[in-house]
Amino acid sequence: MKEKLLVVEDEEKIARVLQLELEYEGYDVAIVHDGMEAWLNIQENDYHLFILDGMLPGLSGIELLRRIRREHKQAPVLMLTARDATVDKVTGLDQGADDYVTKPFDMEELLARIRVLLRRGGGSQSQGEETLSFADVEVNLPRREAKRAGEKLDLTPREYDLLIYLMEHPYHVLSREQLLDRVWGFDYAGETNVVDVYVRYLRQKLDKPFDSTYVQTVRGVGYVLKDEAE
User: Fold this and answer.
1) Tens digit of pLDDT for each residue in 163-211?
2) 157-168 vs 193-206: helix axis angle to the nearest 10?
């Protein structure tokens, strides 16, 4: 079965190029040019991945992203932005976007990022109640639901992916470069501080409300998930 993608882009020429390229790659593609029209479409249809322009009529891309995440739709979201400001990227990521591409973009790079996002968990989910656990932290992978001491953690998609990678490698010191490559899926050359930002976000939810800290800093190297009581 083809993976279904929704492209929300108000520039019709760009939208048409995206549609042709994505369909050539074998995806089932729907195109919408207005944010509000896209929101109505999303409520009636399921998609494996969303591609949202940041500036849209009707609803902005960021507001559309907020609504998608508010409805607990876990399909990956790739943001398109004409602005190369860090604040715009961070805002999108903080609201639940999984990745972003700045216009004008290279089509091969865009296609590669889409493949990474779909592999990471937006495509087909495995059957069953697969879980990961570490100390009192448990993650239900099919549901993308994380808990600590039985309390649900309200994580953004990026925070969730970061937690998963740390839990897959407990007691292993992971460098910022490793985390960028495995969690973000591509190289943020010169911007490794994004890892520090999201580790801080994760700690606020995973560690701060509880008695023990699991995400430890290894100065000059990176981070490690370990139980400080052990």
Assistant:
1) 998 998 888 899 988 888 778 765 445 456 889 999 999 999 999 999 8
2) 90
Tokens of residue 158, six digits: 């990026």
Quote the pLDDT of residue 124. Answer: 36
Round to whole Å and give the CA distance between 112 and 22.
11
pTM above 0.85, yes or no: no
- Residues 216, 223: contact at Cβ < 8 Å? yes
In the chain, the DSSP E strands lie at 4-8, 28-32, 49-53, 77-81, 99-102, 131-134, 137-140, 145-148, 151-152, 174-175, 215-218, 222-225
The domain 131-225 having CATH identifier 3.90.180.10: the answer here is no
> 123 versus 97: which is more confidently predicted?
97
Q: Looking at residue 124, what DSSP letter applies?
A: P
- CATH superfamily, region 4-122: Response regulator (3.40.50.2300)
Domain boundaries, the chain: 4-122, 131-225
Which amino acid makes up residue 132? Answer: L
The answer to whether the CB of 12 falls within 8 A of the CB of 33 is yes
